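@channel anyone free to eyeball this complex?
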Amino acid sequence: MTSQSLQTAGETRIRFAGPAKSQPRRPRVRFDRETTTKVLFVVPAGLFMVLYFGYPVVKNLTMSFQDFTTKTFFTGEAPWIGVQNYVTVISSNLFGPAMLNTALFTIGSILGQFVIGMALAVFFNKKFPLSGFLRAMLLLPWLLPLIVASATWRSILDQDSGILNQFLGTFGIPAVPWLTSPSVALIAVIIVNIWIGIPFNVTLLYGGLQDIPAELYEAGALDGATGWKSFWHITWPNMRPVVSVVLVLGVVYTIKVLDIILGLTNGGPANATQTIAVRSYQESFVNFQFGVGAAFSNILILISLVFAIIYLRANRRAVDE
Amino acid sequence: MATTHLTAPVNHAAAQRMKNIRTRSSTVLGIIFLIIMLFPIYWMINASLQPSGNTLSASFLPLNPSFAGYEKAIADQGKNLVTSLVISLGTVVVTLAIAAPAAYALGQFKFRWISWALLAILIAQMIPGVVIANALYAAYNDLGLLNTYIGLILADATSAIPFAILIMRAFMMSIPPSIIEAARVDGAGQVRAFVSIALPIAKNAIITAALFAFLFSWSDFLFALTLTTTDEIRPVTLGIYQYLGTQVSNWSAVMATAVLSSLPAIVLLVIAQKYIAAGATGGAVK
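replying in thread with the prediction:
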C-alpha cells in the first residue's frame, strides 16, 4: 500500500509542477546552479503539500470506491466496490438530516456571526479611548482551543445547574434542556459557534471599514447621509467585496466544524446535531467504515470546492477594486 | 477667568465636552460588549475555583477559591499538558523550517508558476481536517506513525504551514530586491542572503507565524483524536474530551484543565497583541 500511495503522490506532484515545465520556451534553457538553489527553497514545502494535502485528497477519492474497513489493516485487502459506498451514504436514513443540519448549522452560524460581527466592526470603527485594546481582547474566544470552548459552554448550558438557565429563571423562564433535547440542541450548538466566529468576522470587517476613505463620509454628511443612511449608501456598497470574502470563507470554515459538535453533543441527542463532517468522522473512526467515511468527506470537499471557486472570484474582485 | 469673553469659547468648550461624553460613552459601551463576549471565559475561571464536586452550583464570585480542581487537573492532565507543549513547539520548528524558505522564494524569486502555487496553498487551507485524518490514519498505520510525536507534529503542521507561507510571503515581498542583490554582489550565496538578510528583516512576520503555529497545534483536537490509539501520547485537548465523555463528575477539574489549556492563548494575546492582530487579518484575505 505504501508504494501505491507514493506513486499516487508522485503523480500529483507532476501535475502540480505542470506549469513550470513550460520554462524551456524561455531564452535561458540551462538549469544552472542558481536555478537549482532557488528551487530547493520550495522543495520541502512542495513535498509537504503533496504528502499532507495532495495525498489525502487522492487517497480519500480512491478509498471511497473501496471496501476499506478495519479488516483492511490486517489483510491488506480493500476490494474495489464501485459506487457502493456512495449508495450506502445517500440511502442511509441519516444522510438527509445530516445534509439539512449542515445547511442549518452553516447558515445559522454565519448569519449570527456576520450580523453581530458587522455591528461590532461598525461600532469599533469610531475612534474612542481603549477601542484598539478592547477590539484586540475580543479575539480571545477565537484563539482558545475549540474543545475548551465546548467544555465551558457545556457547563454554562447545563440544564439543571448551568448559569444560563439560572439567569433565564430569574425572568421566570423554565429551564431549557439546551443540549439534551433534540429540538433545541442544534440551536445551542449554533449559538456557541456564533460566539466563536464573531471575533474573526469583526477583524476582517473592521479591516474593510478602515479602507473606506473618510472623505466619502464627509461628502455624504454634507448631502445629509448620516447614521443608517450613511451605512446603506456609503458603507455597505463599499464593503461588498470584503463581505463576500468573509461570507464565503465563513461557509468553507463552518461546514467542516467538528470539534465543537463533538465536544458539545457528539452528534446527539437522537442525531439532532449530525452534520456531514460528524458523519464522516463517525463512519471512519467510530464504525471503522473508512470507505463510507471517505465518501462523506468527498461530499464535504465537493461543497467546499464550489465555495472555494466563489471565494477565489470574490477575492480577485476584492483585490482588483 | 469667567466673565470677559463669554460666547465663543464656551460654545467651543461645550461642543468639546459633548464630544468627550460621546467618546466616553462609547468606551463604556465597548467595555460592556467585551464583558458579554468574554463572560464564558470568566465563568470558566470562576467554575475552576469552586470546591470540587459534580454539581455546577457556583457562586457568582469565587469568594472562597478552592484549588482542589487544579490539584486534580494537574494530577490527571499534567502529563498531557507537557505532551501538548512538546507537540506545539515541534510544530513551530517544523512549520518555520518548511514555510520560511518557501515564503522567501515565493516572495523574492520570479518563478513562472507562483500563482499556481498560491492557488494550491489557498485551496489547501480549505481542505477539511477530517479528510486529512481519514487518509493519514491508514498511512500512519502502515508506517508506524500512530501514537508518535513526529506523526502528530507533522499532521498539526497542516493547519500552520499554508497560513505561515502566506503571511511570511507578504512580508518577504516587501523586502527591496536591491538589498538582497547588494549582498549577492558582496559574494553571499542564496542561502546566506536568505539567512542573514531576509530572515532578520522578516522577524515580525516570523514571530506571527510561529505564534499561530503554536496556537493551532495547541488547539488541535481532531488529529489528537484520530491519530492516537493509546493514552501514551495524549494532548490535553483529548484529555478534556475524555473528561467530558465520561459522565462529568468533577466540573472544577474539567474547568481547571480548560483554564490551563487557555493560558497560552490568553498570555500571547496580552503580551504579543501586535503579532496576533497582524495574523488575524493577514492569512485570510490577501
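from a first look: The domain at 71-285 of chain B is CATH 1.10.3720.10 (MetI-like fold).
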